[in-house]
Amino acid sequence: MLKRLFVYGSTAYSVKTEVLAGITTFLAMAYILGVNPAILSAAGMDKGAVFTTTALISAIATFLMAMYAKLPFALAPGMGLNAFFAYTVCVAMGYSWQMALTAVFVEGVIFIALSFIGIREKLVYLLPEALRYAITVGIGLFIAFIGLKNMGLVVASPATLVTIGDITSRETLLGIIGLIFT
């Protein structure tokens, strides 16, 4: 039945391979279940509600991608936008998370409209390729910095803005070991 449903049959695919790939993908992205609630709770959102929503939305989106598009892609909330949402819009700029979510909703409607019209892709390609890569790298570094701060390796300093934290603390040591293991 699964072979008919997912059009298996060629030598490139098998149920065993797909199940192993699914487990591997889940283990690779399961971090979002801990990280997303931690980030969004900084904006004032309920950690438990964010955890449940993250799990449900990720499962539903991945299920729809598998059943509707028949593509092996796992989908989950983007950490770059969530970090910007929580730390920049809510914490630094002082907007409530409700107001920020309203802005994200409006942005999503505009994004969908631009996609249907065909303008979104043209706008992306107006940016120089180096800038497109730089944006991706910048988001990655921002998320890495937040992770280093949360594990205590980076702390605030009045002289240099940031400095190295107490690397002998349990939390920081555990973070460093996890980073090396990763």
How would you explain this protein's 3D organization?
The chain has 182 residues and is mostly helical. The protein has nine helices and two strands; from the N terminus they run H-H-H-H-H-H-H-H-E-E-H. A two-stranded antiparallel sheet has the order 1-2. Strand 1 (154-157) and strand 2 form a beta hairpin. Helix 3 (32-41) crosses helix 4 (47-69) and helix 3 runs parallel beside helix 5 (79-92). It starts with a helix and ends with a helix. The model has no long low-confidence stretch (mean pLDDT 87).
Average pLDDT figure:
87
Series of secondary-structure elements, N-terminal to C-terminal: HHHHHHHHEEH
What's the β-strand tally? Answer: 2
- Tell me the Rg in angstroms: 20 Å
User: Main β-sheet: number of strands, strand sense, barrel status?
Assistant: 2 strands, antiparallel
Structural class: mainly alpha
User: What's the total helix number?
Assistant: 9
Helix content: over 70%
Order of neighbouring strands in the sheet with most strands: 1-2
> How big a fraction of the residues is strand?
under 5%
Distance between the termini: 37 Å
Which of globular, elongated, flat, extended, rod-shaped describes the shape? Answer: globular
Ranges where pLDDT stays below 50 over 5 or more residues in a row are: none
